[in-house]
Amino acid sequence: EEKIKSMPAGGRQYVVSRVGFSKDGKQGIVSFYYACGALCGDGAFYLLNNVNGIWKVETESEHWKS
Asked: Residue 20's pLDDT is what?
């Protein structure tokens, strides 16, 4: 929160979490966060599937928007 308040005008911040994997390693979930000021940004979760060795986004779930 402090980083967002102290961002210079026009500054942007992107944060991607570590990937959480299913026990079988075929699915993953990651959180993405974007901020462009104290009242500007959004965040989402992405459910990933490993299909023949290629990771693909199966579902995007927006969890907040400002």
From this structure: 96
